[in-house]
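Folding problem:
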Amino acid sequence: MVVLNKIYTKTGDSGETALGNGSRVAKHALRVNAYGTVDETNATVGLARLHASGDIDAQLAMIQNDLFDLGADLCRPDMDKDAEAEYPPLRMSHGQVDRLEAEIDAITKNVEPLRSFVLPGGSALSAHLHLCRTVSRRAERLTVELAATEQVNAAAVKYLNRLSDWFFQASRIANDNGKDDVLWVPGANR
């Protein structure tokens, strides 16, 4: 269990922060941006949950916990040194990816087929889930960019890729299984 006796440490006053392995990097480092955007995604999920109930709320609660796992994974570089670590670092698992895929498949069976691109909106929950989708896509882009130059757990990248799809399909459930989706009409305002 984590115990925080003091919230501010003053160690970041010079513009640096500590990663999970104790190394210090600039607060604007790509790795920090990646896990910071995962944290931002989690905050948007918290907003969405204000409008959720039942299965969707329970699934969002699991996603929030997964996002903390993901942040812990991303803040710990040097995957090749995991075996040497005093405490094994928390890494995302393919089981978490598989769970999202199963949930996406179950949702897909219940929504109307798409006939156009969907605009964010409809119900309050749907609009919030679209915000979750776009922020998680940004987290994915940053994580993929990070993976181009540093080691990143492949399950973390896959999880983020599936997560935005999950948010999209859940937004459709929140719009009466897609019946109340707001559809894009190309060129409608020319």
